[in-house]
Specification:
about 25% strand, Dipeptide-binding Protein, domain 1, globular, Dipeptide-binding Protein, domain 3, about 675 residues, 13 helices, alpha+beta, disordered N terminus, 27 strands
Length: about 675
């Protein structure tokens, strides 16, 4: 269907003595079916798990799971009154938040959305060994519900200013594994755990889980205890990673405008209207979500989709879209920034702050932006903040000294570390040498990420021109995650880092995982400057760079000691979607994060987060490069799609879309 106008057209044809007039007009369709293209379809329908977080999962979550707050355009959290009528801080000492659930809110199986759903989410987050809880969940002392279940009271042990980022994407309590719940309350784990955790118990129907400092005890009838918080708990979230979780006859229980009727992990998801949805009903009644089967160029020029939302595309992809007369494309800055993360493990040159500083002074970030991003999104600038992507609320450019290459300063830093340029006539002439060996830099990235692919090639060229031997490792994401990063045999890795309206979620990238939440295979002590996380050894990918003498003493208040081979698992951080690649930890950063999170007023936390950012620029655990653009493409018969998208992507105002169809009426006139 190709639409060329929004008015009416008349075509007259004559057959014998009858003239037929066909009037064509565009009308709103109330039960449309759309095919939506995303970069990759999630492997699970629960994005609380580290394998489930992605652009596509956020879009789907917004249509099936209720959230008290949604991230709206401008990266601003906004109360979703279809889920909760109100969410109010009623007390500051201790901080107490009261949610009043919308009386109409109901799951698609007819059960109401109640306090127990909030309680179970908190319980699962704290008990899961596969996901690192946000600091906010760990700060909660208790979650209680009134007898009717429509009021939720959350009491914090410590003030947590970003409380509106909690309890999003609620799952129905009926979905949680029955083997871990009491038959009466369904609120707490009731089996012993390995590691240092204790045994959980549950009783009564009051719907309360209470914890103190990550430990818990049975608090009596009508309440349930949260215990066994430490390692070895096992998976507490529902396992929504199989095609068996949904079918047309048995849809997955939801509380959004849609429900899942088909799911093939990694391939496609089919959504249909939720018959019990109480809010504004979209014009769309069916959505088929598919991932890229081939490259973006070939797919975008096809007619196999109605809307596409992608963060992995390039100039050729954009050109394919603009050639289509029946499609509109919108490119904007997304919520992720590409960073070059340094390997800070002992034995790596990059464990030295002066060496990292020197590399950062070589990299031509404006040059990267002009070649990689500007052709697609003109006017782009380097990423100058660790916690916020360009354009997000809270963004402040703090990268003074790194927006232009400073090769002389870099050379001075390298020479102070004992490095020398091999003179002409000797082996390795023109190459940086240390202890008579050439300095080899290994750069790894996901070969299927066009942004990392372009940036990695350019950075390798810049470093080579500066006198380094460079080994590039463009590999599949699975190889990056399961082999190269765990082995530690890389110098730098290019990786997209998600930012957002809740900077506390990034704390895990710069602080160690609490010992009470570590894996049972890990040592009992938590990662710290004197005990970093290491991974089981994997066959070497490339020769290790020669170590610098006394590298661990080059940064005040910060050190990277030798790494024990204890089989520890890599950490996950933030929303759990990434492992802690470089084992960075600066105690001062941890203190500032904690201070910022305690401020209830964002105006007071903002300058503290800026101090965090400035300190990170000093510590240089990674080098922010640029904000990754996203593209939204939609056919012209879809009206109302916004170009200002955050959080759930273009679906945030789906109820306001108008799907237009051609309607023709024929009038026969006999002559």
């Amino acid at each position: 269907m190709v639409l060329t106008a929004c008015g009416t057209a008349t075509h007259v044809s004559t057959k014998r003595d009858v003239t037929t007039t066909a009037t064509v007009k565009l009308v709103k369709e109330d039960h449309a079916a759309l095919t939506v293209l995303v970069g990759s379809v999630p492997m699970t329908l629960d994005s609380h798990l580290q394998v489930g977080e992605s652009y596509a999962s956020k879009m789907i979550d917004s249509l099936i799971w209720p959230s008290p707050f949604l991230v709206m355009p401008g990266n601003i959290p906004q109360l979703d009154t279809s889920v909760v009528s109100s969410a109010v801080v009623t007390k500051l000492d201790p901080e107490t938040v009261v949610y009043t659930i919308n009386p109409s809110a109901v799951w698609s199986d007819g059960k109401p959305v109640i306090a127990e759903d909030f309680i179970r989410l908190w319980h699962a987050v704290m008990m899961s060994s596969s996901w690192r809880p946000d600091i906010g969940y760990r700060d909660i002392a208790s979650v209680t519900g009134n007898p009717g279940g429509k009021t939720v009271t959350v009491v914090f042990e410590k003030p947590y200013g970003e409380w509106s980022g909690l309890f999003n994407n609620l799952l129905p309590s009926s979905l949680y594994p029955t083997s871990t719940t009491s038959a009466s309350s369904g609120l707490a784990r009731a089996s012993s755990t390995s590691g240092t955790g204790s045994t959980g118990s549950a009783s009564g129907t009051g719907g309360v889980i209470s914890a103190s400092n990550g430990l818990a005890s049975n608090v009596g009838n009508g309440q349930a205890s949260l215990s066994g918080v430490s390692g070895g708990i096992g998976q507490e979230f529902p396992l929504l990673n199989s095609a068996l979780v949904a079918s047309p006859t048995h849809p997955l229980v939801s509380a959004g405008p849609f429900q899942v009727v088909e799911f093939t992990p990694g391939q496609n998801i089919v959504l249909e209207s939720n018959p019990r949805w109480w809010g504004a009903v979209p014009s769309v009644s069916k959505i088929v979500i598919e991932g890229l089967r081939t490259n973006a160029n070939a797919t975008l020029q096809s007619s196999s989709y109605d809307l596409a939302y992608l963060d992995a595309f390039d100039q050729n992809s954009l050109a394919q879209v603009t050639m289509q007369g029946n499609a509109t494309s919108m490119v904007r800055q997304g919520p992720e920034e590409m960073q070059m993360l340094f390997n800070l493990a002992s034995g790596q040159l990059t464990s030295s702050l002066p060496f990292r500083d020197g590399l950062a002074k070589i990299i031509n970030r404006p040059g990267l932006v002009s070649q990689v991003v500007d052709p697609i999104l003109p006017g782009s600038a380097p990423a100058d903040n660790y916690l916020y992507a360009n354009g997000q609320s809270g963004y402040v450019a703090d990268s003074a000294g790194y927006n232009h290459p400073h090769p002389k300063d870099a050379s001075s830093l390298f020479r102070a570390l004992g490095m020398k340029i091999a003179p002409p006539g000797l082996p390795g002439a023109g190459t940086w040498m240390l202890n008579a060996s050439p300095v080899v830099l290994s750069i790894a990235w996901n070969v299927n990420d066009p942004w990392a692919n372009q940036a990695g090639t350019l950075i390798a060229s810049q470093l080579y021109s500066a006198g380094f031997e460079v080994r590039t490792l463009p590999v599949a994401q699975s190889v990056l995650d399961n082999s190269i990063i765990p082995s530690g045999d890389y110098t730098m890795v290019l990786m997209p880092v998600e930012t957002g309206p809740f900077p506390s979620r990034m704390e895990g990238m710069y602080t160690p995982l609490p010992s009470s939440l570590t894996s049972p295979s890990s040592s009992s002590s938590s990662p710290s400057p004197s005990s970093p996380v290491s991974t089981s050894s994997v066959s070497s990918v490339s020769p290790a760079s020669p170590p610098l003498p006394s590298a661990s003493s080059t940064s005040p208040g910060y050190s990277i000691p030798s790494s024990p081979q204890d089989g520890s698992l890599p950490l996950v951080y933030g929303n759990g979607s990434r492992i802690d690649v470089n084992n960075f930890y600066d105690p001062a950063v941890s203190v500032l994060f904690s201070r910022a999170e305690r401020h209830m007023n964002p105006m007071r936390s903002a300058p503290v987060y800026q101090q965090v950012d400035m300190l990170l620029w000093h510590d240089m655990p990674s080098l922010p490069l640029f904000t990754i653009p996203v593209i939204t493409v939609h056919r012209n018969w879809i009206a109302g799609v916004s170009s200002d998208v955050d959080g759930p992507g273009p679906f945030f105002d789906l109820a306001e879309w108008q799907i237009l169809a051609v309607q023709a009426t024929k009038v026969a006139n006999n002559h």
